[in-house]
Specification:
6 helices; mainly alpha; single chain; two-stranded parallel sheet; globular
Length: 174
């Protein structure tokens, strides 16, 4: 029996009304719309925590912050690393698992069951924690500052990438 492919896209700071496929045709999201047509769009869901790291831990553990220990973007490891996590469950069932892009866990290289990790951290502690930064270095762009946008003064408003689109983080993740 062939198992289905499972792709979980976990975006940051993306409101429900920023997808054309969800009925908001004032925005153009053709690639996400195509994925939505081939999959499931949850129209009645919420995050038990709107902050990056706890929301990610909620997803991989299926538990709220009081169970796994994350309530904010803090630099402490998960309380009980032996609790089952979604990537481990898939890995144990014979799936190939990968974390690609912004992972935002602490420590950055904690795999939680992912067999492969290609990370693009927002604020990496070291270049070795960020394969995107290493890729930029390999392509002669080691000196680029603010890889993920101009920080921190205008963090919460849209920003234009300071690199050609072929070197942009979104292109690298894709």
């Amino acid at each position: 029996m062939q198992r289905p492919n499972v792709l979980i896209l976990f975006t940051d700071q993306q409101r429900y009304d920023t997808l054309s496929a969800a009925g908001f045709d004032y925005i153009q999201t053709p690639n996400l719309d195509r994925l939505a047509r081939m999959s499931t769009v949850y129209t009645c869901a919420h995050s038990s925590n709107p902050v990056c790291m706890p929301a990610r831990h909620d997803l991989i553990t299926g538990l709220p912050g009081k169970a796994h220990g994350y309530y904010g973007n803090i630099d402490e490891p998960i309380k009980d690393n032996t609790m089952p996590k979604l990537p481990e469950i898939f890995q144990n069932a014979g799936y190939r698992t990968a974390a690609i892009g912004k992972y935002h866990h602490f420590p950055a290289r904690t795999h939680h069951g992912y067999g492969e990790m290609q990370l693009m951290e927002e604020l990496p502690e070291s270049r070795a924690d960020d394969q995107y930064a290493l890729w930029l270095q390999e392509n002669g762009l080691a000196g680029v500052q603010n890889l993920h946008g101009v920080r921190p003064h205008i963090y919460h408003i849209p920003q234009k990438s300071q690199m050609d689109i072929k070197y942009h983080g979104t292109t690298w993740v894709a």
